[in-house]
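Quick one:
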Amino acid sequence: MSRELYFDNSLITKPSDEAVVAMMPYFTRNWGSPAAPHEWGNRLLPSIEESLRSIYKMLGAGENDHFVFTSSGAEAVNHALNAAYTDITLPTGRNQFLTSNVDEAPQIMAMNKLEKLGSVTTLINAGKGGLVTPEAVGDALTPRSAIVSLSWACGLTGVIHPAQDIAEVCKERGVLLHLDASHVLGKLYFEPEDVGADIITFEGSLLHAPQGTGGLWWKDGLSLSPFITGGTEQASKRAGPMNPAGLASLAKASEQLIDARDLICMEGARLRTQLEDKIKTGYPEAVVFCADCERLPHMTAIGFPGISNEALLFSLSRQNVFASIGGGNFQQIGLILEAGGVDKSLAHTAVSFSLSRETTDEDIEKAAEIIVDSAKKLRKTSTHMIP
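Output:
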C-alpha cells in the first residue's frame, strides 16, 4: 500500500502526539469535576488555570479578556451570534446580521436560524479573488446592524480578508465584529488588540488538538450572554461539566502552535510554492487561483481546465492523496471561486490542497507526481468523450 498523503488540513488536522498524551491523566487519575466543592475537584484547578494561560498566550489575549472553552468552533460561532441576538437585537431592535457569500456553514446556518426569531441576514458580496473588502462591509451596514461575522481567511483558497480595516469600519458604525480564526491561528502573527475584533472563535481540531475542542474569546469590556445554560461552570458563560482532558490537550496544541509558527509560515510557503510549480511544470494548463491575493502560507487552490474536480478528487483518493473541493463546513470551492469572479467552467475544476507542519519535501514530490499523472489521464479521457 502506498504512503497516504494528506492535504486536507483545512478540514481537520492530525492531533499531535503530545496533545494526546496531555489528555491521558484525566482519564485515569484526575477525572474529577472542578465544580465540586471539595478537594477532589479543587485539585484540578491549578492545571486548568495553567491550560488557560497557554491558550491566552497563543491568542495574544490580555489577562482581563474573556475565554470560554467549547466543544467545537461551530459551537463558539453559534455562541457569539446567539449572544448578539440576546444582548443587542432584543433590547435595541438592531436585527441585521452580516456574513459573506463565501463564508462557512456555522455563520450562515446560525443566522438562518435566528431569522425565525426576527433577525435579517445580509450576505456581503466578495470581490475579486473572493476577498471581502472593508468597502463592501461598509456598503452593507445599516443603522440596524448588530454584528458582522466572518471567517478571517477562506479555508479552501487561503485568501486572507483585511480584518483590521474591516474592524475599523465596524467600530466607526458601532457594530460588533466577530472573526473565526480557525484557519489563521499559527499562520499569522497578530494581537487581538491590534486587529480590533470584538470576538474571536476557533476550532481546535485545526490546530492539531483533538476533535471536541474549540474556543471563544471576547475583549475586556464586552459582555456575552451564555449559549448553553444550566450551571455556573466557566464563570456561568457555558454550563455543563468542564472537560479538563480536552482543555489540557488544546493547551498543549497551543504551545506547539507558537513554537511551530515560524516553520509553517516559512517552510509551509516554500512547500506550497514547490507543489504549485511542480504541478504547473507537469501540467502547464493548471491555474493557481488567488496567487495575487494575500494568502495563508500553507494552502493553495489549483484549477485543472477541462477536468471535473469531483473526478480528480476521486482519482486522487484512490491513490491515497487526500485533498478537498469543499463540503462539510465549507461551500463547494467552485461556488466560492465563482463568487470571486472566476468563470464557472474553470471554477469547478478547482481542488484545494492544505499542508501541515508535518508535510515534507517527499510528500510534495510524490503528491505532485500523482496529481499530474491523474490530471493527464482524466483530460485524455474527457477529450475522447467529446463528440
